[in-house]
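Still learning. Any example?
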Amino acid sequence: MTTSAVGAYAIKFAKLANIHPIIGVAGSGGDFAKSIGCDAIVDYRKGNIVEDIKKALKEHANGKKLLHVYDAISEHGSGDHINAVADDGAIVTHVLANKNDYDSSKFTVIRTMVGDSHGKEAYRRDFAYTYFRLFGKWLKEGRLQAHPYEVVPGGLEGVEGALLRLKEGAVSAKKLLFKVADE
């Protein structure tokens, strides 16, 4: 989902790297996804995700193969959609520990999580050391922008109502924050 914070930053990094086309999957946050760099949006609420991605590939990638996929949600059947649309030899990166959702006989499947930066391999620690400094620098320079947010009134008293809004799908393309000082 392109409107999650993880998905949004993946789009922003792809745009900074001049990678195109960027085809995002979003619901009510489609306008936000477009504003941060998606060339095409597939609305998952319409239920034709695979066909809509194939259509977007024809329109925006001249029918080229789909060889790079970043699954920022890694739930709700996203693996099934990727299995149906990505071409043999694709590299599929996902953020949750559900590697079995992807057809590893067709794809190279890679899980990427912040926690991996604390792994045993030195290259992971070195990458995280460099990446987080560059990330902070780009935020400071304005090349990256923080994810949109809303401060929920009432401090921790507002958590229950905020969770209900999330459950109902009434929150999209932003984070909900709570001021403990409001307690």
User: Anything to note?
Assistant: The chain has a mean pLDDT of 89. The chain has six helices and seven strands. Residues 113-146 form one domain.
